[in-house]
Here is the input.
Amino acid sequence: MSTPDARYTALIPWLQGHRSAAWVAAAVIAMVLAVLPFVVGLQGNAWVRILDFALLYVMLALGLNIVVGYAGLLDLGYVAFYAMGAYLYAVLASPHLAENFEFIQQWFPEGLHASVWIVVPLAAALAAFLGVLLGAPTLRLRGDYLAIVTLGFGEIVRIFLNNLNAPVNLTNGPQGISNIEPIHLGGVSLGKTQEWFGMEVPSVYLYYYVFLALALVIIVLTVRLQDSRIGRAWMAIREDETAAKAMGIHTRNIKLLAFAMGASFGGVAGAMFAAFQGFVSPESFTLMESIVIVAMVVLGGMGHVPGVILGAVILYAIPEVLRYVAKPLQESIFGHEIVAPEALRMLLFGLAMVVIMLYRPSGLWPAPVRGRTSSAASGSTAGEQS
Here is the structure.
């Protein structure tokens, strides 16, 4: 029988080997992500644009995962935080306010040109405030009732944005806000093609790297939150709120924190969306957007960061790819177009959700069951000792 010291000594090389493998895997993934736009861009910049929006939806899905996956609170109005972040960037980085308010024109004769370093934190803070505003009156609601209230909140925000062009024109109503300035980093405009090392790098490539950096930051934050004391409190509330309260968890504050943290990520993604598009309107923030984001979290695996990322990429990228390949594929097989690409996209979207919910109800990549793993490890250890 081996002594405990001998077992621990034998365990050290095993851990070192797995740590080395993890670093190698991380390096390979980093290299792939770095060259991905140049590989995909061989087919055209439209495909890199798909990557950009996929990263935006990864940010949104990870933010909603805090509310739905970690805390177990069904939120169907998440797109409202996305909209507020987008509109905040739009009004602070466009001539809209200067054109509609004389006093702003006098103070800023050249128009507002707010820096992204100012707007993004403000967008996160505003979205977090709205998250607390939504969460405060819904603390006693659960399940379907919470879903209905959050759905109504999302629609209220969209209608509010759609009608706030009179008597004071803040959002320009259904016409939306245009001429939004792109992101400027260190004097470099991401809205123009730049030349690096004698090679031209289009705008969509530059935004890809900015969105990738933000997505990585959000991934690190969500992983750290999951393993923190707050994350464990969220999961305790998700499993049994009454038991969590009995164990001393302040469920009110923890729920509000979940709403605020998740909403802040949505606000950041909204600001990036406005800067990338250069135009925002209420039509970009409909109920369908909230449903799609919820579907990404559920499809990938609620509460599991890699699964949520997978769900976001699949549910956004595959329908967009079908937009470009569905018509040529039908013409090559049948000689003419049978089903319109938009109808085919929604048909396959619904079919995929039905199939996944029937055969993989916990998602494509669900979170591992830690309890079973610990039990198995305990059993193995007991067997070795015997």
